[in-house]
Every structure is written in C-alpha cells, then in structure tokens.
Amino acid sequence: MPPSPRLRHLCFALAAIGLAFAATPAAAQADRCPKLVAQAPARIIPAAFRPDVPGQSPLFPLVAGVPKEVTLNYIGHSTFLIETAGGVTVATDYNDYVRPDVVPRVATMNRAHSTHYSLSPDPGIEHVLKGWSDTPGQPVRHDLEVGDLWIGNLPTNTRDWEGGTVRNGNSIFVFRAADLCIAHLGHLHHLLTEDDVAALGRIDIVLAPVDGSYTLDVDGMIEVLKALESPLVIPMHYFNEATLNAFLNRLGAREFAVMRDTDPTLVVSRESLPGKPTVIVLPQR
After folding, report:
1. Does 76 fall in a domain?
2. Residues 6+ apart with CB under 8 A from 247
3. CB neighbours of 259 closer than 8 A, spacing ≥ 6?
4. 26, part of any domain
5. 3-state helix, strand, coil in the chain (%, to 5)
6. Contact at 8 Å (CB) between 275 and 20?
C-alpha cells in the first residue's frame, strides 16, 4: 500500500531539516551498518546481483520499481510493526496485550516483563526471535535474512525484581532494509559500552524506551542516544504525557530537534533522514 501524500510530505520535511544542518559523524560510517554481521561467514553474492548504484549494498539490491523506504507503525508500548518495501513485516517486542492487526512474518521478543513477550505467539508467524537464551546468562545470537530484510541482535543485561543483574536478558534488535539500519533498544537497563556502540555500527533510526524508570533513566537514555549519533529517534515505552515530556524536556535543543506527529505511521527513506538528530513522537494506536 503506497504511503499517503501526508506521509510523503513528512519525509520531505525531514529532508529539509537535513539540508539545514551539517551531517552527523555517523553518516560517514560504513554502508553496511552492524559490525555484528562481519562476524558471520562471508556470503558469496553473484555478480548479477551487484547493481551499479552509488551507496547500494550488494546484499540488498534495489528491486526495479520498488521504492527504497521502510514503513514504521507504532502499535503501542514497545511494539512497532515494521514493513519493508518488499512486504516483509516485523512486530517488535511481540506480546499478548499489544499486537498489530496483521500477523507479522517475524516477531522479536524480550522478557523483562510480560508486555514484551508472548508464551503463545500466533502460529502463522514464520520466525519468532527471542532476545534471550534458554541457557541462563548465555547470549543469544541472531543473523537472519527474510526477503529484503536482515535482522541481528546485540545482547544486553537487565535488572531483576531485587535489583540484581540478569546477564544477557535483553537484546537490542537491529533491522536493515532499504539501506536503513533500525535499532530497537528493547528493555535497555544500562549504558552502552564503546564496544557495544562499535558493534552496532551505523544506526539510522533508534526506537528508544523513554519511561525513565523501568528501563534506563532519562539522563542515561539521552547519553545512549548521543553515543549512537543516529539521525532519527522515535520514543516508545512511555506511559503518559508526563513521562514523555520529562524525556523531551531534558533533550538539548541545540542537539536534538523535536517533532510531534498525529499519525502513528511513518515512511522513511535514506534520502529523508535529517542531518541534525531529530526526535519524532508518534501517537500510540
């Protein structure tokens, strides 16, 4: 389904912001975003699949007539429905309380609370990716290609109810399509190390929990966002306007532009990414 004219206007508005500011250092990083992928066995790509398109990743060739864009639908809490130009759908932090209207091809889950995972995912989901390992304390690793989408993860720690540390209890899931790299921070409880940031590589869009209590505190989350240097941030996991505004009010106006939208659906392309880090607040469905 093509995006509405209003959504295309929003993309053009974001592009205008990008022209008004110098590009961030992240924009100059390698074309292939997550360095996690470099640890996987090398893939042999036939020469026929290497189109001569500037900036085009050979693993994700441009399909004739298919626009290079990704659609983000904010369903609520920590759940987004991500849809690629090739029609692959992903539901993030898939759970039994907040679900999209369609059955996604892929579902990712984290287990901090029951609103971030499901014990009975829809049987029509082709790939259910858990952000934790069945072996306590051990990291889980995902490296999955579905159509024009690649999915990987970076394990992180969580807190238990007594304040202790659950090692590798959460994952930051990274989605790549249309030359865009999207990171869903999940139920992040701690700052990222330099190694974490290096492993994630170039992240274009961050889906960030901003409640400031159950996950990372507001100052800590802003520190993470500054470290990632991503052009676009979309807040999630906020429970009311007060928690959302507490996050927005702490942002430095010189460092982050802030936009509010009235539609939970956003269509993004690499060309529409802003040059200055920008926070776009999408309403929950």
Report:
1. yes
2. 210, 212, 218, 221, 222, 235, 238
3. 13, 278, 279, 280, 281
4. yes
5. 20, 30, 50
6. yes
pTM (two decimals): 0.78
The encoded tokens of residue 41 equal: 């066995």
**Token pair in block for residue 226:** 């500054």
CATH of the domain at 268: 3.60.15.10
Structure tokens at 170: 């959460």
Q: In the structure encoding, which two tokens stand for residue 223, read together?
A: 């520190």
Report the distance separating Cα 89 and Cα 72, nearest Å: 10
Give CA separation, 275 vs 19, 51, 72, 179, 232, in Å. Answer: 7, 27, 20, 16, 9
User: Which of 245, 285, 214, 271 is closest to 68 using CA atoms?
Assistant: 271
22 CB-contact burial (10 Å; exposed 0-12 / middle 13-18 / buried 19+): exposed
Q: Which two tokens stand for residue 256?
A: 């982050």
The total domain count for the chain is: 1
H runs (alpha helix) in the chain: 5-20, 194-200, 218-228, 241-250
Q: Which two tokens stand for residue 24?
A: 């961030």
By the 8 A CB rule, do 112 and 105 touch?
A: no
Q: What residue numbers bound the domain in which 249 lies?
A: 5-41+70-281
| Domain contains 55 | no
**Is 9 buried (19+), middle (13-18) or exposed (0-12) by CB count in 10 A?**
exposed
pLDDT at residue 56 above 60? no
Q: 62: which DSSP letter?
A: P
- Position 147 pLDDT exceeds 80: yes
Q: What are the pLDDT digits (tens) for 212-258?
A: 677 788 899 999 999 999 999 999 988 889 989 999 999 877 789 99
Specify the range with the lowest mean pLDDT, choosing from 97-111, 157-171, 192-206, 262-276.
157-171
